[in-house]
Design brief:
Elements (H helix, E strand, L loop, with lengths): L1 E12 L8 E7 L3 E7 L5 H11 L21 E5 L3 E17 L4 E9 L9 E5 L3 H8 L5 E5 L12 H8 L6 E3 L7 E3 L2 H5 L3 E2 L20 H9 L4 H36 L2 E3 L9 H5 L2 E5 L7 E3 H17 L5 H65 L4 E2 L2 E2 L25 H55 L8 H47 L4 H20 L10 E3 L9 E3 L9 E2 L6 H18 L6 E5 L8 H13 L4 E7 L13 H5 L7 E5 L8 E2 L1
Amino acid sequence: MFKINKLRVEILTDKSENINDLYGFEFSFNQGFNIIAGPNSRGKTTINSCIYYALGMEELLGAHNEKALDKALKEEFSIHTHEEVNYKVQFSKVLLEIENDQKKISCLERYIKVNNDGSKTTNIGVYHSTLENLYVEKNTNTAHEIYFLNSRGNNDDPNGFYSWLGDFAGLVIPSVSNSSRSSKYSPLYLQIVFSALFIEQTKGWSEFFATMPFFGVTKAKEKIIEFLLDLNEISLSTQKDILNRDKDLILEQWTRKVKSFSYLEKQSNSTIINIPQALTIDKTQIEKISVVFSRSEEEEEKISLPDIITEKEILVRELENKPLTTIKENREEAILEYNTQKNKYSELKNYVDKFENKLNIEFKQLDNLNTQLNIINSEIKDHLNLKKVFSENIINERGANHCPTCSQEVSTNLISTKNIRIPQLTLDENTNFLRSQKKLIESSLLSLKSTINEKEVLLSYFQNSIREKEILIKSISKDLISDDRAFSESDIVRKLQLEREIENLTNLRISVADLKSDLENLATKYHNNTIKINNLGESEKEDEKILEDFEKSYKDLLFNFGYESNEKFKISINRKEPFKYFPVYKRFKDDTLPQSIRINSSASDFVRNIWAYTLSLLIRGNNHPGLVLFDEPGQHRTNLNSLKELFKSCSHITDRQTIIFTSIDKQFNDEGEKLDLEILINGLNKSNYNLIQLDNVQKVIRKL
């Protein structure tokens, strides 16, 4: 665990007389409950965002690096004295003093606006010193390191900041299953964990862990809870995720193998029966798969593959032993055979033409998918280049914002957010979305290519069949126009074709046997996979005890905060999917269809849910980093009594740190109640909270 001791921002301006003439702010925080209160537009958001930024968590605010910060910290700000004076920012940085439960203190230093000395906003400096002694100790070579952010490996590389922060806070970050990693595993990224700790004002009150970034972690919200509460299930569930992914792959392969039988059917004009569509581990079900042929289209009588091979072998032997006949002797038989083969040829030719047209359409689909894939790859490349542009601070140079492509000036905020609320995705969120689209297209391409390859093989077979019929028809036709005394060639051609048919049927028998063997291997893999999953077992009894304590804490807090949407016995922490580890509404105790607490609560009551849930994780979480930050918890017409209870509950949490940013003296519900700070803190033990009250007139940035 760790706590925040001090926050300091230093700004060098165009009006600074020397490099020691700095502007900014500095605040101290205590263990336990901290309140930052003030009227709107006085700097609460600026202070709040600086904490996020100093800890490398600005991604939870929807942006990377200094883009998440207010322009007052990186461009210009004003100070009102007798008149308004504007100051242009030349250089700025934030410093945050933190302390872990081993009493070890470190000071984090991160630049906001840099000069040309090589400093980067993508790095965080860590000094092993208090903030007070930092500058004195710098002169005596205070030990410090530089750690990187916003790059691959920042959670598990020893030089990554989140790796250092996890170690400092005493957190053993587990490996979890990750669909975006080729290794199938990744760390449980700290940015994901902190979405359960830091509740920001814009999106944070709309859903549990609403600001959680996407990194491909499987069931990320469940993993957060398992980690914070130190459940045994986190190691089991990670293994289950991998095994379930393997299970899905086995089922997918089974479906493909079953589909292969249908292509063999078309290729051989046969029927393959007793194919188990669903995966089975019963070997006898697989052994029952067999091939049959119809005697004719009119007859329902079926003949098995071994029998039809035997019949054709007998016909070959008969033709071998048959004496040569003249055309005259075979004329009537030849005319009948000619008409029969002509009709079969026409039917087959029409079918193949339609088949080939459909195949050409699939080739066009393949071209379209490849074009889409190229576009997606190009967009991903553009996003990565843009990310580099922002991370290297290319746009923000010499106090002006210019597009690096066309050199036109651009505003820091393209859309004013005063009266408009438009969801904005970060570059990383866009890139992750594009990568997910790429995976979908690649999956479609793989499936389509497989289908096309199979159909090309089938088309080749059809074309060969057409050629064979053309040879036979040509041979019979030649007999019909030849001298009656000449020997017939059709028997010889027929014998050769029968031999080819026997060869094809033999290959069919081998192919079916191979597919049956493949199904048996998949069934064995599935069986072994199921055993491994079952051996993992369910959550142990210790997990259930932890969840019971967590649920009790959550429900007690929830109803203390004035929750009214449902009765207490209808609310619980769900143990299984859906909504695993999250509050649900149940009509009765054994209700098998739990419903989301969000859709079964009023807007203000759902905010109370987030208060209670977040604080319960703080209180009960053995792996909790030890602090919670609420930005403007008085959302969606909550009432003053509820807020007062929230402040009271936070003041009772003395062994961990809570920080609340709240506006004051503004109406915040339909009853006309105002956020009265005196009412909120009335009755609290003064030793149990630290109040930072901002000026009613001046903004937070001033001369240091």
